[in-house]
Amino acid sequence: MEALLRVRLTLVLFFFVHLSLLSRTSSQEIQIVNAERRIDLTSHIIKVFVTLKVENSGTSPALEILFAFPPTLVDHVALFKAAATVGKRKKKTYVPLDVKPTELPNAPNGTKYFSISLLNPLSKGETATLEVLYILTRSLEPFPAEISQSESQLVYVRDSAILLSPYHVKQQITLIKTPSTRVESFTVVAPSNRAGTELKYGPYDDRPPYSYSPILVHFENNNPFSVVEELEREVEISHWGSIQITERYKLVHAGARHKGVFSRVEYQQRGGSGSSSFRHLLARLPPRVHSVYYRDEIGNISSSHLRTDFRKSELEIEPRYPLFGGWKATFVIGYGLPLEDFLFESPDGRRYLNFTYGCPLTETVVDKLTIKVVLPEGSKDPTAMVPFPVEQHLETKYSYLDVVGRTVVVIEKRNVVPEHNVAFQVYYNFNPIFMLAEPLMLASAFFLFFVASVSYLNVDFSIHKK
Ligand SMILES: *[C@@H]1O[C@H](CO)[C@@H](O)[C@H](O)[C@H]1NC(C)=O
Ligand SMILES: *[C@@H]1O[C@H](CO)[C@@H](O)[C@H](O)[C@H]1NC(C)=O
Ligand SMILES: *[C@@H]1O[C@H](CO)[C@@H](O)[C@H](O)[C@H]1NC(C)=O
């Protein structure tokens, strides 16, 4: 019986695999009429914008478009988004499309893909315009790998002059924007040229599927290469009126390593600018923050400035020393927020926290981000809603006055960029009777203390009387 079932399952599976392969082969009849790629290298976080005009030159309708990456690049993709352009000229709007990482059997040279689901099936002869944005982290290689305090930082970036694609590309162009006009060298793939801070590759006509032409650009980039190797954000909800945030940072300057000794005199003479080191960090916090502190292993650091208005707060912090390539800083930022700005009740009676994901530091990459939402005691059945894939599990935390401990929703993600700073929610059930748990514990503690004092006094008296 069981064997029979297994055979059937295998057959069904086989059928589905076959079906999906069929639809894939038919979508190979896609061609890209025009591709425009803009690569922004002005930060240490690389942003790539691609506009694709796709056409179905086959016979069956196409449901998805594949976007290819060489295997070495795909691990650096922190974010991949796609949208369809709807309407013409002034009435243009963008509709976000579903994307998911995909592997294909027999992909040439281990090519990896993202599959973009189209809004409507693309019939024979029809065209659609897609906008793609992807973000790459840790993809600039400092060269030289070590520089002295007064030197500028130069980096390499590797890519292809031609868009890697499983489809035939009729016409394409690539524009690369560098942070300054100092470009040491770039691979020439005619026609290619440079004007100011822009490198232009193309236009190239009629490139067959999987065309690739490696390029190397060597340029100056003195932006702060601010990378948090590990960030733990603890968000503790107390139904007594506040949310307490504690953020533990392990920050590193991920640029060219610092060579030689650090001279504070030289640093101050040059006003601390001109090189790749950085002195200040800017954290964007919600409006109405209070009780802000900033400390490291040694203690509280007072050199921070908080500016607040009704929309946001900006906290500028200054580590004890400027950060040079390879240097690290470990610190903690803490603050309180009013509960009513972030905790709500959903129509079905559940409570939910609506908070911002990601890292508050600007232009910063987080290698590993852990968000711990500590729910009030007595909360049940939590569910977290995050608009991108994350890992989740539950923990229990005990603090003083806790009876059964607090449920902690732990959300983890690798390779986080500022574009991940979007709202996420944690829903949970809460029985208001638990609001009384803490006061009851306090009251009983006082009562016990009272009883103990009285009995102590009694004993004391009895000794006196003797
Ligand atoms: C695979 O890589 C090799 C070496 O880099 C290259 O010569 C070849 O054209 C590639 N094949 C395809 C199908 O991209
Ligand atoms: C640091 O500052 C915070 C908030 O102002 C305060 O609660 C804490 O006691 C201070 N710690 C030290 C070691 O000064
Ligand atoms: C969460 O907050 C954001 C603004 O910060 C808002 O746009 C969004 O609608 C809220 N989501 C929910 C489910 O309340």
TrEMBL record:
Signal peptide as annotated in the record: 1-27
GO cellular component: oligosaccharyltransferase complex
Metabolic or biological pathway: Protein modification; protein glycosylation
Record key words, sorted: Endoplasmic reticulum, Membrane, Signal, Transmembrane, Transmembrane helix
InterPro entries (alphabetical): Ribophorin_I
Main location per the UniProt record: endoplasmic reticulum
Transmembrane feature ranges: 440-459
Pfam families the UniProt entry points to: Ribophorin_I
Biological process per Gene Ontology, one example term: protein N-linked glycosylation via asparagine
Membrane topology: Single-pass type I membrane protein
Entry's localization field: Endoplasmic reticulum membrane
Role played: Subunit of the oligosaccharyl transferase (OST) complex that catalyzes the initial transfer of a defined glycan (Glc(3)Man(9)GlcNAc(2) in eukaryotes) from the lipid carrier dolichol-pyrophosphate to an asparagine residue within an Asn-X-Ser/Thr consensus motif in nascent polypeptide chains, the first step in protein N-glycosylation. N-glycosylation occurs cotranslationally and the complex associates with the Sec61 complex at the channel-forming translocon complex that mediates protein translocation across the endoplasmic reticulum (ER). All subunits are required for a maximal enzyme activity.
Similarity remark: Belongs to the OST1 family.
Subunit structure and binding partners: Component of the oligosaccharyltransferase (OST) complex.
Protein name as it appears in the record: Dolichyl-diphosphooligosaccharide--protein glycosyltransferase subunit 1
